[in-house]
């Protein structure tokens, strides 16, 4: 250190003057600071302290007197904070000296020493934390960066959203866009991981080219990217989303291949005091809707509320199945010529202890989406077979009707239907002809080969097979001709319109003629009036079900209903 620098520090007479010898033993820069009559002075210091002060203040010390409290040096700025503490309490402060890459970082601490003759003293230590701070910053930058694309990652994106939320309200609002690259896993599997990484990098670069000044982009997931954009309302946000989607429509070139990559974009508008995570989840929810619609979608709270209800139902449905809280009702199928009951269709019912009756139209789709349909379907099959066997035992004879059980398309695709039906027959002691398995057209169209194997296996068990809701799907005549279908169930949408729509009558007549030509029986759904029942019987329909005959009955009421129809003196066609 230069002589001019050393002379700038005034050594005040003090019993602490010999403290320099002790301070020299400390491994860090240290000095004893005194305050007397408004004047600051250094009574002792070690050589490390002089070096640290010289570096931080560029030699501009001026004796550290009271006037230094307004100086710009590192120690002077810190002592200004200390001097404001009348009780000379412990003080420590992290300070930066300089800016940019040349900035240095220090931690300055003051510890009070005994006061003598009105002079306040404290031990000042200076710790250079530059290397530590730089290491922390480097680590944080690494933690906030996606290593593949170089973009900010999911954690950094949350901070970007939070920073946008703190902007003044007089500025334009913000929206969060989530861009999901579709079919990425298929590309990754077919072309390899390196090609997948190349595609992600190229995709990210193209996203960057589609952004405006001020927009922020991050990679928030494997094939998911988040963008914060400044917008003035929903229309402006949709314009930004459409602009990005248009930019991604051009094919991507990987090696010698050109690949068309579709993307789904969901967006959510930032609301005052909204949590960043919640806003991001809202945009992710909108992505799911965008995948279904094929266009950018804006988050709608109502849709999210329905999604939360579906999730709640899924959780409670799983619990209800474990606790056996569901039941089966049985809707009669009535022979339209004789008026007798020819069978019952088993229908799942759920009476929630708090919510009351939950419609099958609500919980069945949730069961299919979550995979609970496998558990539900097995339970329904076993329960229906056990109930029918119980009715036989109660009547003391083999009753002249069967029970129909619905099979979901998901269940047909994932479960061992043959083992399930065979197990229900063995445990109940029934023969296969006592059961009718109802499948929708979608179960056949999704996987015709598997459907054919399932149909053949069911026929090997002597079970009857019915195609439910016929006419509403996409099955071809080739399926009807090739598959061993016993019954065509005409959908209620055609039956209910017969009395007012001539086209519906023509469709029903055509289905009945087709079934007769193929040797199949027919059942009309949704028969709600005597006039409908009479018309269907006249057209040649074999059986019907609907509110005109009976609503779905509890298990205890089904067998008495069959007996009442059997004893009825009125045995005429409807």
UniProtKB/TrEMBL annotation:
Per the database record, which ranges form the EAL domain?
310-566
In terms of PROSITE patterns, this protein maps to: EAL, GGDEF
Q: Which Pfam families match?
A: EAL, GGDEF
UniProt domain GGDEF: residue ranges: 172-303
Question: What is the name of this protein?
Answer: EAL domain-containing protein
């Amino acid at each position: 250190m230069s002589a001019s620098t050393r002379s700038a520090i005034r050594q005040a007479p003090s019993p602490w003057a010999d403290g320099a010898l002790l301070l020299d033993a400390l491994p860090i820069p240290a000095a004893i600071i005194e305050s007397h009559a408004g004047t600051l002075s250094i009574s002792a210091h070690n050589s490390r302290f002089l070096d640290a002060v010289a570096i931080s203040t560029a030699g501009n010390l001026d004796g550290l007197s009271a006037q230094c409290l307004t100086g710009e040096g590192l120690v002077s700025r810190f002592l200004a904070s200390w001097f404001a503490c009348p009780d000379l309490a412990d003080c420590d402060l992290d300070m930066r000296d300089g800016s940019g890459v040349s900035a240095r970082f220090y931690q300055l601490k003051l510890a009070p020493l005994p006061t003598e003759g009105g002079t306040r003293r404290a031990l000042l230590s200076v710790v250079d934390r530059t290397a530590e701070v730089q290491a922390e910053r480097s680590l944080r930058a690494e933690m906030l960066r996606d290593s593949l694309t170089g973009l900010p990652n999911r954690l950094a994106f949350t901070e970007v959203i939070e920073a946008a939320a703190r902007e003044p309200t007089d500025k334009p609002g913000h929206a969060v866009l989530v861009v999901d690259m579709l079919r990425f896993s298929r590309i990754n599997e077919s072309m390899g991981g390196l090609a997948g990484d190349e595609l992600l990098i190229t995709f990210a670069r193209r996203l960057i080219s589609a952004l405006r000044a001020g927009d922020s982009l991050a990679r928030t997931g494997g094939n998911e990217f988040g963008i914060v954009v400044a917008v003035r309302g929903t229309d402006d946000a949709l314009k930004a989303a459409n602009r990005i989607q248009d930019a991604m429509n051009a094919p991507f070139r990987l090696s010698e291949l050109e690949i068309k990559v579709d993307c789904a974009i969901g967006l959510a508008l930032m609301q005052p005091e909204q949590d960043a995570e919640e806003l991001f989840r809202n945009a992710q929810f909108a992505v799911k809707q965008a995948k279904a619609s094929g266009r950018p979608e804006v988050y709608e709270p109502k849709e999210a509320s329905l999604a939360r209800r579906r999730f709640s139902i899924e959780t409670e449905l799983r619990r209800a199945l474990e606790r056996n809280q569901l039941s089966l009702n049985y809707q009669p199928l009535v022979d339209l010529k004789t008026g007798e009951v020819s069978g019952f269709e088993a229908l799942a019912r759920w009476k929630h202890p708090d919510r009351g009756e939950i419609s099958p139209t609500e919980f069945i789709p949730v069961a299919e989406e979550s995979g609970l349909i496998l558990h539900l379907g097995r339970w329904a099959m076993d329960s229906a077979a056990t109930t029918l066997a119980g009715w036989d035992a109660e009547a003391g004879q083999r009753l002249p009707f069967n029970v129909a059980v619905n099979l979901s398309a998901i269940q047909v695709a994932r479960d061992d239907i043959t083992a399930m039906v065979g197990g229900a027959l063995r445990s109940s002691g029934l023969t296969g002809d006592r059961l009718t398995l109802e499948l929708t057209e979608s179960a056949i169209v999704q996987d015709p080969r598997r459907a054919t194997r399932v149909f053949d296996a069911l026929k090997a068990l002597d079970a009857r097979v019915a195609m439910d809701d016929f006419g509403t799907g996409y099955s071809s005549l080739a399926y009807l001709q090739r598959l061993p279908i016993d019954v065509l169930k005409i959908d209620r949408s055609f039956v209910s319109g017969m009395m007012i729509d001539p086209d519906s009558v023509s469709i029903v007549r055509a289905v009945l003629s087709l079934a007769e030509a193929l040797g199949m029986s027919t059942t009309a759904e949704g028969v709600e009036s005597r006039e409908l029942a009479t018309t269907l019987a006249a057209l040649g329909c074999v059986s019907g079900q609907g509110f005109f005959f009976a609503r779905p009955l509890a298990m205890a009421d089904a067998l008495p209903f069959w007996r009442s129809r059997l004893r009825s003196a009125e045995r005429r066609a409807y």
